Amino acid sequence: MKVFTENEYSELKSVIVGRPDKANWPKGDIYFDRLIQLSTYEPKLKSGPVPEQVIKQAGEDAYAFIDRLEDQGVKVYRPEIMDWKRTVAGLNHVTTGMHSWSARDLLLAVGNMVIECPTPFVSRQHEHMAFQEIKNQAIADGCRWIAAPVARMEPAECVIKDGKIKLTERYPIFDAANVLKFDDKLLYLVSSTGNYAGAKWLQNVVGSEYEVVVWDNVYNFAHIDSTVSVINHNTVMLNADRVSGEILPKFLKPFNKIWVHDCEASKFHKFPYASKWIGMNTLTINPETVFVDSVQKSLIKQLQDYGLNVIDIELRHSRTLGGGFHCMTCDLERSL
Question: Strand 164-167 relative to strand 48-49: parallel, antiparallel, unpaired?
Fold first, then answer.
């Protein structure tokens, strides 16, 4: 299993696609509890197993997605099925798990290296176990697979301030989904799921081969891939509700920009773990082709008018489970 990927747009050759199986909303995770506390949606999300109907429908959509990926010549790998309702003891925590639907949340593939990232979610700090077989194959074929120091999440490490979660800077904390790859640059979003210490640690790990570009004061809630999507080597799709041309990183200013002013508010089961902007969470498999949720009719037309080949697949529970096409995948190999 070859691992080599330096951007989000070159021809995709192999990828991990996550699973909804045995998904669970965790108990005992202080960060998750505070994140839900900040939601303005009522009623709040309760801990416990995700309903079987949700898992069934999400699984069907994932298999339809996989079929289309394989039609495009992409090799697909899947995590093992794990029982995320099981209780696991960590440093100072006893918690259940969440799910492996969003494979990109915790695994960052850069060059021929995969990093298990220091997530603030205590309930997901053992999620890498589901990827053990993939990890073994990758290492056997020369991949540098490393694990970041585990984030020790205590009450003082994730303080609610001004309606947002403020992370400690005592040690590195970030999800892989805080990062987008632009060849020799890694765009790193500082937010409630990524701190400055994480950016510094990542720069030390990747060395001089890549520059970690820190982007802050943009979107404080979580990940970067509902704010920016990479289309090709000189084109990005931008969330016009969050971003303006003035606050773009310097290296992105010359790029062609597709401004998205709204997304369809797709349905969800009881609680929206993601906002409507999960519709921007697309997957580019080559510079001309992008996967988009079929409910996003206006976005699909906008991308087609731009000259792109759009493959639309239904994702009925992207908002329920908090992951669109980019979230639920981790690219392993892209062409040079």
Answer: unpaired
Q: How many residues does the chain have?
A: 336
Instruction: Taking residues 301-330, report their average pLDDT.
Output: 97
> Active site includes 327?
yes
Catalytic residue among 143, 263, 327, 330: 327
Whether pLDDT at 219 is above 90: no
The answer to whether residue 158 is catalytic is: no
Q: Which of 99, 223, 317, 326 is catalytic?
A: 223
**pLDDT of the residue at 336:** 83
CATH superfamily of the domain spanning 12-334 = L-arginine/glycine Amidinotransferase; Chain A (3.75.10.10)
* Global confidence as pTM: 0.96
Residues 6+ apart with CB under 8 A from 145: 113, 114, 116, 135, 138, 139
Give me the catalytic one of 175, 225, 293, 331.
175
Is residue 143 among the annotated active site residues? no
Domain ranges of the chain: 12-334
| Tens of pLDDT, residues 256-266 | 999 999 999 99
